[in-house]
Amino acid sequence: MSNQAKKNTGYPYPMLNPPPFRWQAEPDLPEPKVHEWIRTLEPSAAHDTDWSRIDAAILGVPLSRSSISASAASETPEEFRRAWRSFTPYNLEEDIDLTPLSVVDLGDVRQHVTDISRCHQSIREAAATMQRHHPSTLPILIGGDHSITAMSIMGIKDTRPEKSIGLLQLDTHFDLRSLEEFGPANGTPVRNLIESGSLRGSDVWNIGLHGFFNARSLRDYADRAGVNWITMKEARRIGLETAVHSALTQLEKKVDTIYLTVDMDVLDLACAPGTPAGAPGGMRTEELFEAVRIAGTHPRVRGMDIVCLDPRRDINQITIKTGVHVLLSFLTGFMQRDKA
Amino acid sequence: MSNQAKKNTGYPYPMLNPPPFRWQAEPDLPEPKVHEWIRTLEPSAAHDTDWSRIDAAILGVPLSRSSISASAASETPEEFRRAWRSFTPYNLEEDIDLTPLSVVDLGDVRQHVTDISRCHQSIREAAATMQRHHPSTLPILIGGDHSITAMSIMGIKDTRPEKSIGLLQLDTHFDLRSLEEFGPANGTPVRNLIESGSLRGSDVWNIGLHGFFNARSLRDYADRAGVNWITMKEARRIGLETAVHSALTQLEKKVDTIYLTVDMDVLDLACAPGTPAGAPGGMRTEELFEAVRIAGTHPRVRGMDIVCLDPRRDINQITIKTGVHVLLSFLTGFMQRDKA
Amino acid sequence: MSNQAKKNTGYPYPMLNPPPFRWQAEPDLPEPKVHEWIRTLEPSAAHDTDWSRIDAAILGVPLSRSSISASAASETPEEFRRAWRSFTPYNLEEDIDLTPLSVVDLGDVRQHVTDISRCHQSIREAAATMQRHHPSTLPILIGGDHSITAMSIMGIKDTRPEKSIGLLQLDTHFDLRSLEEFGPANGTPVRNLIESGSLRGSDVWNIGLHGFFNARSLRDYADRAGVNWITMKEARRIGLETAVHSALTQLEKKVDTIYLTVDMDVLDLACAPGTPAGAPGGMRTEELFEAVRIAGTHPRVRGMDIVCLDPRRDINQITIKTGVHVLLSFLTGFMQRDKA
Amino acid sequence: MSNQAKKNTGYPYPMLNPPPFRWQAEPDLPEPKVHEWIRTLEPSAAHDTDWSRIDAAILGVPLSRSSISASAASETPEEFRRAWRSFTPYNLEEDIDLTPLSVVDLGDVRQHVTDISRCHQSIREAAATMQRHHPSTLPILIGGDHSITAMSIMGIKDTRPEKSIGLLQLDTHFDLRSLEEFGPANGTPVRNLIESGSLRGSDVWNIGLHGFFNARSLRDYADRAGVNWITMKEARRIGLETAVHSALTQLEKKVDTIYLTVDMDVLDLACAPGTPAGAPGGMRTEELFEAVRIAGTHPRVRGMDIVCLDPRRDINQITIKTGVHVLLSFLTGFMQRDKA
Amino acid sequence: MSNQAKKNTGYPYPMLNPPPFRWQAEPDLPEPKVHEWIRTLEPSAAHDTDWSRIDAAILGVPLSRSSISASAASETPEEFRRAWRSFTPYNLEEDIDLTPLSVVDLGDVRQHVTDISRCHQSIREAAATMQRHHPSTLPILIGGDHSITAMSIMGIKDTRPEKSIGLLQLDTHFDLRSLEEFGPANGTPVRNLIESGSLRGSDVWNIGLHGFFNARSLRDYADRAGVNWITMKEARRIGLETAVHSALTQLEKKVDTIYLTVDMDVLDLACAPGTPAGAPGGMRTEELFEAVRIAGTHPRVRGMDIVCLDPRRDINQITIKTGVHVLLSFLTGFMQRDKA
Amino acid sequence: MSNQAKKNTGYPYPMLNPPPFRWQAEPDLPEPKVHEWIRTLEPSAAHDTDWSRIDAAILGVPLSRSSISASAASETPEEFRRAWRSFTPYNLEEDIDLTPLSVVDLGDVRQHVTDISRCHQSIREAAATMQRHHPSTLPILIGGDHSITAMSIMGIKDTRPEKSIGLLQLDTHFDLRSLEEFGPANGTPVRNLIESGSLRGSDVWNIGLHGFFNARSLRDYADRAGVNWITMKEARRIGLETAVHSALTQLEKKVDTIYLTVDMDVLDLACAPGTPAGAPGGMRTEELFEAVRIAGTHPRVRGMDIVCLDPRRDINQITIKTGVHVLLSFLTGFMQRDKA
Predict the structure, then answer these.
(1) C45 reaches A (C-beta below 8 A)
(2) Which CATH number goes with the domain that contains A97?
(3) Rounded-to-integer distance, Cα C258 and Cα C256, Å
(4) How far is C63 from chain B (nearest CA, A)?
(5) Residues C105-111: what's their mean pLDDT?
(6) Residue pair E137/E57 in contact by the 8 Å Cβ criterion
(7) F60 located within any domain
(8) Position C328 in a domain
(9) Across the interface, do A90 and B216 touch by the CB < 8 Å criterion?
(10) Which of A261, B291, C116, C275 is the most exposed place for a label (fewest CB within 10 A)?
(11) Is B24 inside a domain boundary?
(12) Residues of the signal sequence (chains A, B, C, D, E, F) (predicted)?
């Protein structure tokens, strides 16, 4: 479908490319795999779509030019789609079948090769369009580097400026580095959000910080801005689940919408070798799955992203499979939320 | 020795090849390494062997054509033998010296290149022969893919049809997929055993299931068949050791013989990158070692195998060394059993 | 589409799965990439297809259980389709634009997990169906291991038993090993074809043999059977192009149809690390491309396959990209043939 | 030294960072290795430098955000410096000792994380400064991706707009893709130079094009623009050395300055696995070394760069060592030029 | 600077090479990275150095010829220096800023290619010189293989023979193998120290032993010599922190100086793939960091080393980054000690 | 067999270990693979061995501690033995069947962990013993690093001091570095031989030198010492076969015995990634095979070695398979010599 045609059919996403490929599947399989369950949104079918029945929409954001260190995180959306085949949409431990959920794959935000601000603008517009055209559908962004989180939240805010947004961040880093020095890079999204007034520092909860990976000045900035943070060591002391519950409980008192961002480098480097800034001493895989599932259960969590996963550094798909598992763990919580 | 000659000397294993290589060792070393302690059974010496003094016999099963996804698990028996060099037969933490055990390496089951049912038949015959010729020697099969477990247990059952067998399975998967669709593949051995009447579903205990790797219908099948299962999350909640003890206690009430099967993909993918269907969120290495050791202590555990380890996907021998450690942990338990 | 439905629409390929994924592309791109130019044959569109206008049909054959050594060549069809994106259908050196050719991707032959003879039967039927339903369309099989060549040629022969077939084989090996010992494996296809009477030994030309990779008895068998062979060293002495031309000239005098089979291990191991039996001292990449292009120009070459490429052993996609280039080089010759 | 201080001492390169590390070496070694021979230019010593005695200046350009596919070519300058240790500055085959040459390492152009046009502007200014402050010193840029070539030549042109520049390009690609679509990316530098009037299409000679890696429209554009090009096949037919000599002879009649650009993907993928767009069928290593050496001998070659080498894709430093060898081969020609 | 010159300026380290490279940094950065904070000791500045103000001195020991299995641990000092860039000298979890510490990098002990005893002698002299010239500066050796620990402690002992030294060893192995058989290799340092009278067996505490990696005779030797050891399993039972505290408490009663040696293979192989004798079932990363930090807090710990890290076996820098983190965790404890 | 026993049976090799493993083979196979054809010499059978019927004896030399850069070349003998399985002893291109040759595997020279001179002494004694006890058996040493060549030739010289020895060296390096600086390392063997009077510089022919990998002073030393050398470029100009023939023709006039040494780094790095000092621009695989085969045909070539192959740096066994092919190519020439 040409861009012209897309506009004519009322397709709201001129800034999107469809997913690079669609899986071939028998329709109405009684027991689909994940790639058979998540459906591609065909532009031609867009205006026939009853969005009120779509629970979640996945948006690929193939941008990693804005990463401080060289990254191929732009290849993650495609690798996610390929890896869906290795998963069933049934969580045995929680006895949750995801197939009643209606999840669509919107494809990827079109990105420019040399104009990063244009890339960011398209992401922001895509996020805004999602809010505007189908506000009840939960947006899930698959990055890309962490700079996209600022664009995603700004897009939401553009659509509903009167609503306050809080951030639950699982990360090794504050992401509060200087905008003057770096611009909207993967080291600055939280600062970008605070300084642009998109959210308040005190509405940010960062869990998982550890080690020698944040300058002291960033911690000072965080404290001045009122950012709430719980180190990995502290989270283990009080229980990671408690830490997540506590953050959600605090946030629900203060904001309308909670956005969850998962930087894959929150994981221990041995558990997630495919990250551009991975570090030893981080979260373990099963801890992250549980943290994300809990976040998924909270009714006010209305957006999430998974970022900074570099498939070219990955080994034996460890990190890609872990990333997809994070997505499905979140949706498991989302299902559990629905039941409640 | 020609096949003809083998038959004449009363060597009971026409379906075996000797191990591809034998280590060169000084005899009667005071402190052997594992490759100097485990002895190759020479076909020419077979009828002089006093089997009542052989505690355990290792059988390589180089078959992975029956794996659903491409696998080089057929190369594992050879890689095990090479890796023996990196281990001493002394467990420091348990203060258990394995050298009083007499363990022989029987070599590998001869496998056909294009006739998988002939491969399976040979495995079944080898297992039956082990039971028949030296029933007091504990058989240990080194796979190969998980399809071999069905053949191993059927071979035991062929020899002693009146005895009931129970299965303790450490696995991420039920292995209950449809025989109609897959045949005797690595996704179907437990179903194969149940449907062939080799054991009852209620005599299966599977510990370690987790995540999004089993379709809901398989869980339903498991429940209908009475298969007992404990997820990773549940096992951690009650303690993995407790879970294993509990399974053994239940089984000993119901069956004559307990067979232990260890699918290496029960481990977290970061702990065992060399598995064809590895998944994040699994068991940790030291947890598996302890589970297997405990199983080894139980007097009714009279057979075991280690399967679905693909050395071509392995990294820095992490998975191969872990597999050998599983073998030695089991034998540590076996020694502790003898002492009791 | 269900299998039932397929039968009802007259779709001739009940033994095929559609390609696992289809690329998303803007229709009627002025300058497509290869993945945008090769079209997927939709089963639903099959009986509307005017096959007389289809020049070539690609068939994936995801079988490598029949490989002597462990191989993931079954993953090659999918990796080919992914790698198409990295190529344009325009050969700059020959100034040949492939886009006037109509090439369809039929998908993959459905393969059974544990019954290799059923796998082989399906390949044979698929090849026969191609000959029967659209004899003017050139079949191109993407393996899989070399056993598929025997099935492909037998399928052709089944359809037109009165026609004689010759084989141009680019290979490091004779592939004449004993059928009694191996069955229809990747070491026996040429013997299988000779002994089944599908073709005569004297209608086989093998170019590229070298080194220490064929037992003397195989050479003796080849000579007794009248197989024509030119070693790498001899081919370089007379010129590889001359060798190929010479083989084609000889074959065209004797057979109706020439079938080209390219075993990727004919290449030097450094040029094609992703092969299960790769060897040093083989053909260089540009030599293979030219040999295949020349074969493509010959009007009697009416079938071809590319086999024994194992993507799991590949490094940086060297071998996959080379395999796709072989396919496109052949089609370049095919275009040049049309012009002549 | 602060940026302020740099300006005060007359250091002309406010846009440069010093090399990230300097090798520690005993001064005045009789037989230095390459890292001991190439000297770091200390900013503090800049205004004492007698540039008329500096033969060549190396400039790192750590930019690969402008690469179409994800690339870590930004890490190449540092990897080059590390790899210098593995080379002596003596070419045995040519009996050329490079140590009489005075070569300095200027460090790296400072690059912005998210503003690519600012990155490009800094490269252009650095190139211009080199021309302005020490026009007799030959500039050598170590990329980075191929977009830097446009900036480098524009910088030269900025300084001496009246001089005509010709381009000798060793490449698999035309690099003539649409500026409208890509901007100043690694697929567009030659088009950028032509369309900006920096050089004429007829003053470009591209040697090494091959295979299916350039759309037909790019070839048409090349022909319309008068770009001269010799495919790999043609170059081998006439002799690669002849091809290079021919290009130089043509260029010297038409331009004042010849600029040599080496895209490492001109090499066969097996010879240079560490390139973002590597392809099978390319130039062999020794062919490239000789081509570059010949270019180095021509007195009108007054600038060169090496681009599109991605160390993260490299294997065993094959590509990095080859890149450094290209640099030294060029300098060997440069020495031979001096002698003539 | 020539060796002659070094002697004339009173530089006490004729056996040292300066670090192979020095990072280029702006002086007096408000927030340095680790490579900007640790300063290189320039030989020319050595006699102006006020050593009383230097808290710790890092010495690279690029020796791994004395490793039983092939090892490139000799490359670790350089890889450490490169990896410093990825760390800030601020520990967020402990809120400890390391920058008040003055830490110098002395460079590497000069090593001979074929005379291992001369290598060892140089290490011993370097360690002795450190004690003699700046006894209040804590020495930190970056190996190299474990044989260097014997030399380091002997050097300390040479300088202060009247002082008793105790060893806190974090290791999978006893390192008590036979000196007669191996000489001063990486399997013998503790035995070397005991048998040379440098320390008493009862002043050794080894924490982290596990699995099947120590012959029974070594355990017997350990017990006869009075070596104290706590297996991984026992350490986890009582708490690893408790184990470390207990060892330190015992040692402080008996010795003047405690030396900490960290063999990286104490870590689980999946957490530290880059070790020559890595084993499954070991310590986890965060456990090691905490153990080392606690050791750092003890005022009598006056020397430490990190050994048996082989960067050539490493994957994605997991082990190198972990090694640097061990160094910084120790210095965090050292800072906390100062505060107390 | 104990060392004591070995002495009693007249086994002449107290300094040898048997090969670490022996392949299991059916005896008297009509068509053996290489591992079934090369026989292990059992110490117990040594005094029954009729050495006059043994054509060649293979000796593993697992030493790489004496390598300038870290190397695991010590693991090559074992990797060779494993890789023998992938080869038949029949050279198709030359129609040479090697099985009439009687070749034994003597095992490995016992090496000390920390005393390199003792290692070297054992190699020298092993080589001397071979000459003394079975002078008509051609010794083939599998290194190990290049230092072993000096020991091998010295051992021959020790036994027959009156005989002159010449060296045909295929290498990227002169190996003439300073003995004072390096001792008997892998950079000095030729100098060691010249300075010890074991051979004359003018009796050395080095073919394959290239690039920037030899300091000018080494070339000057070579010329002063009369070493004959032909660069890669020159060898290609005159034909590599001509170069080898020429060297042999010159040497046969001057020496009694010619020794062939193959440093695997003579190959282009892309053809032999598994070498510690590999370089781009070297020999191609098929060129080396032919050079070595020609050397094998010369009746005065009475010893050879293959060195500096590091299996840990190898990729997909490219270099190991190439090394084994070199061995078999040499034996092919040896067979052709016998026929002449």
Answers:
(1) no
(2) 3.40.800.10
(3) 7
(4) 10
(5) 95
(6) yes
(7) yes
(8) yes
(9) yes
(10) C116
(11) no
(12) none
pLDDT surpassing 50 at residue C1: no
Residue C20 to residue E264: CA distance in whole angstroms: 45
pLDDT digits (tens, 9 = 90+) for C3-26: 444 445 567 888 888 788 778 765
Measure the CA–CA gap between B141 and D76, rounded to whole angstroms: 50
Give the structural domain span for A298: 3-18+30-339
**pLDDT band per the 50, 70, 90 thresholds, residue F171:** very high
**E17 beta partners:** E108
Counting every residue written for chain E, the total comes to 340
Looking at CA atoms only, how far is residue D284 from chain A in angstroms? 26
Mean pLDDT by 10 residues, chain A (340 residues): 49 83 70 93 78 94 97 97 96 97 95 97 96 95 98 97 97 97 97 98 98 97 98 97 98 98 98 97 98 98 98 97 98 83
3-state secondary structure string across A192-255: HHHHCCCCCHHHEEEEEECCCCCCHHHHHHHHHHCCEEEEHHHHHHHCHHHHHHHHHHHHHHHC
In a domain, D125, yes or no: yes
The overall pTM is greater than 0.90: yes
Residue identified by tokens 């990773």 is: B232
| Chain F environment of D31 (Cβ under 8 Å) | 215-217
Per-residue pLDDT of E228-286, as tens digits, reads 999 999 999 999 999 999 999 999 999 999 999 999 999 999 999 999 999 999 999 99
How wide is the angle at C-alpha D47 spanned by C-alphas D46 and D53, nearest 5°?
A: 75
What's the angle, vertex CA B330, arms to CA B325 and CA B334, rounded to 5?
A: 140
Q: Is the Cβ of A2 closer than 8 Å to some Cβ of chain C? A: yes
* Alpha helix stretches (DSSP H) within chain A: 3-8, 34-37, 76-83, 116-133, 147-159, 179-182, 189-195, 216-225, 232-238, 240-254, 285-297, 318-339
Q: Do B321 and E210 touch (CB under 8 A)?
A: no
Higher pLDDT, residue A30 or C157: C157
- Establish if E66 touches chain A: CB-CB under 8 angstroms: no
Interface-testing mutation among D69, D181, D212, with chain C (most C C-beta atoms within 10 A): D212
Which of C92, C292, C306 is the mutation pick for testing D, counting most D CBs within 10 A?
A: C92
Phi, psi (deg, nearest 5) at residue C156: -60, -45
Tell me whether F183 touches chain B (CB under 8 Å): no
CA distances from C195 to C178, C189, C254, C303, F111 (A): 10, 10, 19, 21, 54
Greatest extent of chain E over all pairs of C-alpha atoms, in Å? 57
Of the partner residues B231, B273, B278, the one whose CB lies closest to the CB of residue A92: B231
d(CA C248, CA F146): 48
Give me the number of domains chain C comprises.
1
Mean pLDDT of F77-84: 96
What b/e readout covers F160-173, taking b as 16+ CB neighbours within 10 angstroms?
A: eeeebbbbbbbbbb
Interface F:B, ≥3 CB–CB pairs < 8 Å: yes
Token reading at B333: 């338990």
pLDDT of C15 reads 87
pLDDT of amino acid B41? 85
pLDDT at B3: 46
Residues of chain D contacting E1 with CB distance shorter than 8 Å: 26-27
Helix, strand, or coil here: B181?
helix
Write down the pLDDT at residue B44.
75
Looking at residues F170-196, what average pLDDT do you find?
Answer: 97
Beta-bridge partner residues of D56:
D103, D138
Which residues in chain C (89-128) have CB-CB distances under 8 A to chain A? 107
Report ipTM for this prediction. 0.94
pLDDT band at E1 (very low <50, low <70, confident <90, very high): very low
Residue C28 has a pLDDT of 65
- Bridge-based pairing state of the strands C56-61 and C103-109: parallel
Residue of B nearest to E269 (CA): B318
Chain-centroid distance, C-alpha B161: 21
| Contact residues on chain C for B68, CB-CB shorter than 8 A | 113
